[in-house]
Amino acid sequence: MANLDEPLYKVLGDKTAKVLSKGLGLETVGDLLHHYPRRYAHRGELTPLSGLQDGEHVTVMAEVVKVQGRPLTRSPGYVLEITVTDGTGLLKLSFFGRRGSYRPERELSPGTRGLFAGKITTYRPRGGKPQRQLAHPQYKVVAARDAEEAAQEWADEIIPIYPSTKGLDIETIGKSVGTVLDHLRLDADPMPRLMLKRHGYIGLREAYEGIHRPKSWEELSKARARLKWDEAFVLQVALAQRRMAAARLPAKPRPAIEGGLLDAFDARLPFELTPGQREVGREISEDLSLSHPMHRLLQGDVGAGKTVVALRAMLQVVDGGGQAALLAPTEVLAQQHYRSITTMLGELAQAGQIGGADHATRVALLTGSQGAKARRAALLEAASGEAGIVVGTHALLEEHVQFADLGLVVVDEQHRFGVEQRDALREKVPGGRPHVLVMTATPIPRTVAMTVFGDLETSVLGQLPAGRAEIRTHVVPPEKPAFLARTWERIKEEAAEGRQIYIVCPRIGEREGDEGDGAAAPGPAEDGDRRSPLGIMELLPRLEELLAGLRLGVLHGKLHPDEKDATMRAFARGELDVLLATTVIEVGVDVPNATVMVIMDADRFGVSQLHQLRGRVGRGTLPGLCLLVTDAEPGSPARERLDAVASTTDGFRLSRLDLEQRREGDVLGASQAGRASSLRLLTLLRDEEVIRDARDEATMLVEADPDLADHPGLAAELATLLDEERADYLEKA
Fold this sequence. Notes:
This protein is an alpha/beta fold.
């Protein structure tokens, strides 16, 4: 007998264990039992030989009429060819291997009846006509007297199809699983018995049998439900322990203070806050008043007013004697934030200057490309506390950047920063942690996962400020070339009306590897043979002809920072009609007069990027137009993605689409898109109710037994899930 921790070689032998280890990384009985089938098949209705179609998966009942073997002509080896008939036609069965090694040769002699299942393919023998065959079919010999009953039973059997790899066939995996199940000895069920009873879940042994050797679809359904619950519950226990630990971390409370900077800022605002902005502001204000760190996601569509909400939170912290850091992913965005914040604050950002308000603060800008003098000044203002607000890029994360009293970290577009980078800022608070607010228009799949799991408090701005125009989005497809010609005409019409246009390309230049800002998402796997993505420098000469007479500017990440800033300022002042750019303008760029966004090779971008890019237009009272130019064919995954983006401006809906396509990443680890998912059966969008129930149960259990002293089996499951890397990730996250 073997428990879940038993090494596979003790149950299966060295040879099979090595194959499973090398091919799939499976080392223990538990590893193999959690290698679930990716799908299930049943052999289905019997197919007459006269009606076979190439590529079909079929099951036929037929009689062997001929058996012969021959050596392969182009490679060493041997093929056993068995011809069968059902009276309506002939079919060849082919088995490849070494001579004398075939069980079929012994069992399938002429006159034998059998059931044969597999995929129909066509081959052409040398000098002969094309023939249909089954290569290495599954088969079962049946006696004539019980042929019909055996045929139905065999056809109805549920067949697990396992994920496999080169050199490791599905049959080996299936046989290994069967052997392990026959020898399995389980200790006590790791899940609390009363909890399982409350939710109607079967036992673990029964679940393993039902997922790997189901006798009925109902049995399989019950097994999947139980094992999904295990995944959800163990994860929720880990997150409940994390929430409890986070609540014990110290953070300096920063309650709102009457008559301070925040009140003065509200009084000078030239517009009314939306009800959503006021409500979200209240939630954040309450969090900032607590003695443990805030960890909140501020999600709002492009143009919903997230920056104003974040600035009000920063001012509350400054009123409380602290500092706030705003971390932006690009220099263009950092400079944009710096300008917009200082403009909105006016004299409130001019402490120590002529004309500054009595209780004003300072706003400092810190980027990697600053000159030495400006950098020294910004570092001094941050370290002395003179600057209540420090705006910067990754330069803020460097060790020598110090703060007098960092109370709040605001991360703009959180998907552009890793946990390690965000943690570097939090470490700048000796003996405690700052409050953290992360902002995004379209959360990455992992963030959606964390909100579904309840591990990230979320505030949503679903209402656009008054006067903000709508954005219409259309796909410009390859099957309608007139649409592309109309695109260039529309640009000229908008420019003639005094409006401005963005044109975005996935990369900068023509040379292989010159991907520019590296922000474009790779296309789907089936697009591997397509041409390289379009570069700015390829398109520029064509635009100079197509848009002759218009003032064109170029912006990308490899330009000198001063040149980038000058180009962006010229566009903002209306001195350029068209800005040809990479995704360097993806976030934060605010030019209310820009009305059209044309995205070339739009299928090469991710959903979040497309949503962010189109948010650069329609930022004033004029309606925005976004055109997604693509050569993706109708019905392809890339085209479906673009059609979905065109169908809605709801960022959270789009992020859920992203989650469907990319998966959620490792919820407890650093991977941000499903290549290393810690979930095998659980899918967030279909199993939200299961996840919520598991969260409630896990919260109650951890509150009553924080260290799982009364649940040793569950503690062992948790230890298996939380390896050293994931435990370290949770500590930082």
